[in-house]
Design brief:
The chain is an alpha+beta fold. It has two domains: 299 residues, no CATH class; 106 residues. Helices cover 28% and strands 30% of the residues. The chain is built from twelve helices and 22 strands. The strands form three sheets. The chain has a 15-stranded antiparallel β-sheet that branches. Strands 18-19-20-21-22 form a five-stranded mixed β-sheet, with helices on both faces. The longest helix has 17 residues. The N terminus is likely disordered.
Length: 413
């Protein structure tokens, strides 16, 4: 009866689903309404209603609605870390077929823990429970500091990527090239961008740089890595950015802004249809842009730089700029843009290839100052004749940075 009341007056031009939860129940009922079809999650493994699931301890269970007997389940754990130790451990589970895939979710603006999503498939619930127990024990023995979620905490984290309150009525529909989510008179749009990684230099701190660029553009959303194993037993991954839009500004394109800023195509807009929306909730990939993990391990490694020295230098440098009211934008720990025209490159030791890449990318747009904090490494840099002869580049003595005449920037700006 309640479904019939809800159906009255619904717009039939867009696929819509309504999510209802009864406080007394532990399952979710999902209604899809469209003249041409009943929308549901269709996979090669079966047919599943996207929000018709059961929370059982540490697992979110889905049961196929057709003759397929395959169970799909998800476990989530959270941690402060996103590093190679955890990635390599989870890859072992992929290779041993304990999990079908796993994903890592990172919030851009909010300082929240990293969410790891593990996907299980089996015909028997007991098998999935056994797989999870093996994984849990393994993570504990390796002291990877992972907290596996259960019960209401598990459900909240699982749904939080699309809704804030699991007791709400939610409408999700296609809106132009976006997905619109309406919840308690609050509306957001989700825009999806596949990330192109073929250009990456392993000496560039890509993740931290990208996150800081997105923050500088005042955007928010999620980064999601999806890891799978292919038929050749190679681990592959894709990376995509999901932007949460609360106020639409058609004059500002995230894709164009980021790509123009980096002078290379990093983001590529992807249109997600309602029938494929489960890929997002289940933290699967949204495109075919997968990369061999062994070629990109540097994304998860510590580059060995003395970060504390750079952080201390950056703090003092930015304080000096603020005191004399000079505007700046921090791109990364190594790159600072001042007055839209002057790029300061700061590194601890001489990293020739990294410096070369920065110069190649930015010298046509900015005047570049190079600072190497280690005095001996700074002297090595001075010996590079070709670098000293380049226009729009100046090497600064690290011991004299505090005496730098910022009026030079004012005059050149």
């Amino acid at each position: 009866m309640i479904f019939r009341e809800l159906f009255r007056g619904l717009n039939t031009y867009h696929p819509i689903f309504i999510f209802l939860k009864s406080r007394q129940e532990t399952t979710k009922d999902l209604c899809f309404y469209n003249y041409s079809q009943i929308l549901c999650c269709m996979t090669k493994k079966g047919k599943y209603h996207l929000l018709s699931y059961i929370i059982d301890g540490h697992l979110v269970f889905y049961k196929s609605q057709n003759r397929c007997k395959k169970l799909i389940a998800f476990a989530l754990f959270e941690t402060d870390e996103f590093n190679l130790d955890i990635i390599e451990t989870l890859n072992e589970f992929l290779k041993s077929k304990l999990i079908q895939y796993y994903s890592v979710q990172m919030s851009i603006l909010e300082k929240t823990k990293k969410i790891y999503v593990l996907n299980f498939e089996a015909t028997r619930r007991d098998n999935i429970l056994q797989f999870l127990n093996i994984i849990h024990q393994n993570l504990t023995e390796r002291k990877l500091n992972c907290k596996i979620l259960e019960g209401s905490a598990l459900e909240k984290r699982f749904l939080a990527i699309i809704v804030d309150k699991s007791s709400s009525e939610v409408i999700i529909k296609e809106e132009s090239d976006s997905i619109m989510i309406e919840e308690d008179n609050h509306t957001i749009l989700l825009d999806f961008f596949s990330m192109k990684l073929g250009f990456l230099d392993k000496n560039l701190s890509f993740l931290s740089n990208f996150i800081k660029i997105i923050k500088n553009f005042r955007k928010k959303g999620f980064l999601i890595f999806n890891f799978v194993i292919d038929i050749n037993h190679e681990i592959k991954f894709c990376l995509y950015f999901t932007e949460i839009v609360t106020e639409v500004d058609e004059s500002v394109s995230t894709e164009r802004s980021v790509n123009e800023f980096l002078s290379i195509t990093v983001l590529e807009r992807k249109i997600i249809k309602i029938k494929k929306f489960y890929n997002f909730l289940w933290r699967r990939g949204i495109s075919n842009d997968y990369y061999l993990l062994h070629s990109f391990l540097f994304l998860f490694e510590n580059d060995g730089v003395d970060e504390s020295s750079i952080i201390k230098f950056n703090r003092n440098f930015e304080r000096n700029l603020s005191e004399i009211q000079i505007k700046f934008i921090r791109f990364s720990d190594n790159l600072l843009l001042i007055s839209q025209n002057f790029l300061f490159l700061t590194i601890q030791t001489l990293r020739a290839e990294y410096i070369q890449n920065v110069i190649a990318k930015y010298v046509s747009k900015y005047f570049i100052y190079i600072i190497i904090l280690d005095k001996l490494e700074y002297e090595k840099l001075l010996e590079i004749r070709n670098l000293k002869s380049l226009e729009n580049i100046q090497i600064l003595d690290p011991n004299k940075v505090d005496d730098f005449d910022f009026s030079v920037i004012t005059r050149r700006g």
